[in-house]
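notes to self, project folder thing:

trying the whole complex as one job this time. last attempt i did each chain seperately and stitching them together was a nightmare. two parts in total, labels are on each line so i dont mix them up again. if this works i'll redo the older ones the same way
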Amino acid sequence: QLVESGGGLVQPGGSLRLSCAASGFTFRNYWMHWVRQAPGKGLMWVSRINIDGSATTYADSVKGRFTISRDNAKNTLYLQMNSLRAEDTAMYFCASGYSLGFTYWGQGTLVTVSS
Amino acid sequence: QTVVTQEPSFSVSPGGTVTLTCGLSSGSVSTTYYPSWYQQTPGQAPRTLIYSTNTRSSGVPDRFSGSILGNKAALTITGAQADDESDYYCVLYLGSGNWVFGGGTKLTVL
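result (full assembly):
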């Protein structure tokens, strides 16, 4: 099970930190991802982190503004989002990775960037 | 910029068979892109159907199958049911730790 938290309303230029608590599987053995979905739009891959946090990748649209991290001792994934823009408004899902796809999904946390 | 293409919409009759495809704006999709497929109904989280081209996720009925057809990845649903009416997304692994989703296909069962 994956449970996201930390979403909310934030002003443009602001920051927010999302969390994703994992249970029921061996979190430290899985790559983890963030995927987002703007209202009424499709899914967009945002970021991925490897099992020990030593390698991260980002979609071009968030590179330099977002930082993915994980704490395997706490079975928790994070997404630090800075310099937020209106176009970052979306439901943010965390997902575990397997065989270069995604397996388990959380229910999502909504981020709204608006003044 | 790589664009992953999907049919915007498709319809199928109950009990019928439908094949949704996933292509690239330039080039062909092969197994090296590890295509995977996800089902999403409004207001819900995505559900994993297929990963690594043709491996069904746990609990997914064998009515759902994945393949490469020509130069595209494909998701085939046989014996379509009313609750298959959903949005379907493919995603391709582009290498170097990057993934791209297709725009999704809205499937109507009627």
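what i see at first glance: The two ends of chain A are 34 Å apart (CA to CA).
need to look closer tmrw
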